[in-house]
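Q: Given only this backbone (379 positions), what sequence would you predict?
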């Protein structure tokens, strides 16, 4: 049997990883400034993380949600404390797309409606309703096509006010757009979403799957603004590589047995991974580190006139520049540095582990300078 060929891949085989570094099968060492799509939050193979999962596996790795799993309560309590959402509830699942699917269901159950507002360049997942709310027609199959999702220009307050009505069940917005090129919502735009949702009885969903879990220097990216969403979806950095996702749910929602469900969500190993991540984030003060090293990176990058635009907070940074794909490849193959891209807006994305040091940031800046200045000379 062959693998279904849907991923364009680099001819690199990682076989070992530690902290912010990855080694391939040929023994080459790479600086990881992408964290496997923002997944590696506390660093590869963190000793506390490895020990916690190993000890849990030796006890029990899995049982279904038909029995008591106290680890779920421990994870929820810790997440509430660190995020500032102690009065919210937590539903655990397996991925970001699944988190958004459940958020849409909760919003629809709560309002009795089915219309959703999403925004240009949004990415919310590749499944059913989540992909319908993703602004990329090439990954929306005919079965996913629906009139229930209305796309509006991002940060366009006039268009939002005009489109809103009592038919809207929910508005979904990323705390900081990732795939869309690290686009930042304005505080006034987020306030308007909140105000219109309240006025029309709709639900505000903050998709923090890529931008959450300390990546921007605050626990959630929307906390750079002054709003409080009704539902917050999380995944990626939540498990540092172990598949886990969740929805933080406002007290206004009433739970009923059978309303939501999952086979694997909230299993013992996933919860152990999630707890270990939060413990390391707290013990090593990774939110502060993300803010400080991110600010340092942004300051250093401002010196390059070749950069058309620089966006982001903390360790979620978008670098818009010409020849971005070639520059990314040279960073990878000539300097052994992993980065990401947002192709539609010619942007290199930096999403490193939150324990990135200033010395490692300097390593990137030095390589970036060589690549960009060489490209400028060639142009």
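A: Predicted residues:
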């Amino acid at each position: 049997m062959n693998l279904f060929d849907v991923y364009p891949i680099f001819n690199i085989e990682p076989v070992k990883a530690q902290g912010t570094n990855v080694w391939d099968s040929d023994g080459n060492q790479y600086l990881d400034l992408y964290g496997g799509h923002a997944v590696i939050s506390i660093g590869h193979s963190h000793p506390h993380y490895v020990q916690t999962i190993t000890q849990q596996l030796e006890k029990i790795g899995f049982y279904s949600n038909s029995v008591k799993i106290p680890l779920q309560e421990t994870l929820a309590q810790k997440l509430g404390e660190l995020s500032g959402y102690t009065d919210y509830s937590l539903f655990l699942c397996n991925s970001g797309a699944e988190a958004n699917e459940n958020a849409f269901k909760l919003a629809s159950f709560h309002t009795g409606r089915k219309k959703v507002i999403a925004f240009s360049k949004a990415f919310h997942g590749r499944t059913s309703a989540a992909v319908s709310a993703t602004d990329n027609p090439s990954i929306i199959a005919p079965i996913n096509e629906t009139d229930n999702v209305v796309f509006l220009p991002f940060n366009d307050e006039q268009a939002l006010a005009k489109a809103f009505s009592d038919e809207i069940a929910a508005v979904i917005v990323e705390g900081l757009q990732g795939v869309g090129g690290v686009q930042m919502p304005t505080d006034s735009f987020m306030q308007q979403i909140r105000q219109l949702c309240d006025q029309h009885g709709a639900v505000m969903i903050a998709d923090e799957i890529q931008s959450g879990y300390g990546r921007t220097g605050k626990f959630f990216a929307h906390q750079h603004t002054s709003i409080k969403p009704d539902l917050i979806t999380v995944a990626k950095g939540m498990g540092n590589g172990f598949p886990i996702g969740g929805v933080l749910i406002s007290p206004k929602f009433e739970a009923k047995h059978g309303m939501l469900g999952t086979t694997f969500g909230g299993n013992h190993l996933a919860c152990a991974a999630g707890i270990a991540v939060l413990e390391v984030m707290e013990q090593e003060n990774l939110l502060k580190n993300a803010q400080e090293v991110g600010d340092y990176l942004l300051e250093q990058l401002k010196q390059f006139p070749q950069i058309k635009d620089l966006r982001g907070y903390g360790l979620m940074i978008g670098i818009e520049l010409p020849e971005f794909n070639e520059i990314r490849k040279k960073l990878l193959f000539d300097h052994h540095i992993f980065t990401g891209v947002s192709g539609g807006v010619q942007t290199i994305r930096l999403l490193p582990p939150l324990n990135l040091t200033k010395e490692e940031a300097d390593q990137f800046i030095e390589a970036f300078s060589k690549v960009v200045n060489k490209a400028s000379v060639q142009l």
